[in-house]
Amino acid sequence: MIIKDVVSDLLLVLAVLIVLGASVGLLVMRDAYQKLHFVTPAALVAPALVALAILVQVGVYENTGETFLALLLMIIAGPFLSHATIRAIRVREKGDWRLEQSGQAPAGEKER
Amino acid sequence: MVMAFVTAAIAMLIAIVPAGIVLCRDELGASVVAYEFITSVVVMVLALLAQAFRRSGEFELAVLLAVLLFGSGLVFVRAMERWL
User: Fold this and answer.
1) Cβ atoms of B66 and B36 closer than 8 Å
2) ipTM of the complex in this document
3) For the segment B5-64, what is each residue's pLDDT rounded down to a tens digit?
């Protein structure tokens, strides 16, 4: 009983630290491209830890199943959303997301 | 044990504040990124609160928001790409 609580608490602490760190990263990074890197830990890693904490606490149960379902949906949505967001930001900035015919980046694009 | 889940939920809600600042003050692309971050965190908060107060029915909200995260995120990025 006590071990179960300790493991569950540790997983929750880890999830909270990841979310807090990602949140600070989101605030201090320069542009949207850099900020997007900090969404992934909060959208994929932390939910996995929360789901594990609930699994440890209540075992295999209806609540655990629904938490893992939400986790699965986030795992599916995360990469699609990140890709679509980056694409939209690039289209907004450059007018097109593709490289030019020569394989070079569009004119005027700065080297990072 | 209730306290651990509630405390985690509160800490995650506090973590939304910096993202909220980005959402309100940064340029549009960064705002959409912050919106996606906040939605992901709120999914976890809903699951944590449902577990903390032992309300099985409220896990539906977390699942529902996880579904809406995908749909609304795509709507926002498409609108940003085309019209905003």
Assistant:
1) no
2) 0.90
3) 999 999 999 999 999 999 999 899 899 999 999 999 999 999 999 999 988 888 899 999
| Residue A21 near residue A41 (C-beta atoms within 8 A) | yes
**Domain chopping of chain A, boundaries:** 2-94
Domain spans, chain B = 2-82
Put simply, whether B3 touches A (Cβ < 8 Å) is no
Q: State whether residue A47 sits within 8 Å of chain B by CB.
A: yes
Residues of A in contact with B6 (CB under 8 A): none
> Judging by beta carbons within 10 Å of its beta carbon (0-12, 13-18, 19+), is residue A51 exposed, middle or buried?
buried
Helix (H, G, I), strand (E, B) or coil at B19: helix
- Residue B83 and residue B52: Cα distance in Å, rounded? 42
